[in-house]
Amino acid sequence: MKTQPKIEVGILACEELQFILAGSFEYNNTPFYGGEFRAILQNNQIVIKNKVGSEKKAGSIHISPIGNNSFFELKNVTIGVNFHWEQQENQRFRGSLKLVPENGKVRAINLIDLEEYLKSVISSEMSETSSLSLLKAHAVISRSWLLAQIEKTKSLQTDGNIYQNCCETEEQIIRWYNREDHNNFDVCADDHCQRYQGVAKMQTGKTTQAVEETFGEVLMFDEKICDARYSKCCGGITESFENVWEPVKHDYLTKVIDNNDISTNSNFDLRNEANAENWIRNSPPAFCNTADKNILEQVLPKFDQTTTDFFRWKIEYSQNEIAGLLKTRSGIDFGEIINMEPVERGVSGRLSKLKITGTKKTLVIGKELEIRKWLSKSHLYSSAFVIDYLEIENGIPQKFVFTGAGWGHGVGLCQMGAAVMSEKGYFYIEILNHYFKGAELKKYY
Fold first, then answer.
1. pLDDT interval class at 81 (50, 70, 90)
2. How far, in whole angstroms, is CA 306 from its chain's centroid?
3. Does 50 share its domain with 145?
4. Which domain holds residue 125?
């Protein structure tokens, strides 16, 4: 049996890092006294200073706690980076603090036991008031995802291959986003990987119980840890992995109808444009098709509760707004926008390729997150959308109305659907079996 690993979590990088040490710490096997500090980068070395000007300097600095009651606090940590809920807060962490140079900035990394990390992740992703079945399912997939990423990194390093996440030509830009750009740590602390917001989120109630009762449990398929993914709301059907990230097929990350009637729309092909449009413009039955305030309050952190149109949504842009948005977000001047034509959809109706035609430029873009980035000041809820073109003047629309389905990439577990399932009495293993077909729950350590 394997042992629980320690992991390295990248919290933030800035030109001047401010932090507090509370309790007993050590550095280079000597006591390191607490207080307020700032860290800067000089000649590619980390320099930390306290209030009286005493300083330490090294290529990297690793400060370890002594005992269980010590913690460090990082100032001005940005959460929800580039999302509509982006904000800054001070965060406290257990474990060790590691400071390293990164692209001219000081990078703060938290070294912590994986299970302790998960107690914060589950509380950061979900509310403490969520049902135990949901929290346990989330603990398993968060653990599985992280261990799968660590194994993937090792494999890439062993093979010596350069990870490719972009295919760019004059006619198209196809890009997907994963965590392979994290070279100095295993995982980041924000939505790009998994939300990890420190001690304040390490609750002592059901979230801790969920992690402890699933200690070391992971999903496995063909003797490999599953790259278990999750998103906020699938919109009624989950998406296949290869339509969102690299072109690799995972049999446990594919189309799942999000209800308990397997006959309902089981052969409904949303890659077909007419089917996709009909699906998106309507509100079919699904676990995640809920407006139950009690469920929303149980599942969502407060800053997510401002959004209620998870399942189906609308957004409108004027011609000036959409043209300006595309120019700002892509750096490309399309001129006036004439058309945005679906080129390729995935099994959930999410666009993986979209052709944008303007008076100055025509380009195909993908995959789903790149589409969402270009069409919103932060991120469009999902790429499962259809567009109505209104107020046509000389062949050019003056208004664009987007009607969309779901929130997020839609791959793997649907958080809203899983919340409803748990409220209906489904056990956490049943929830996992619903969203990860063919995967097995196993004890990894």
1. low
2. 18
3. yes
4. 6-209
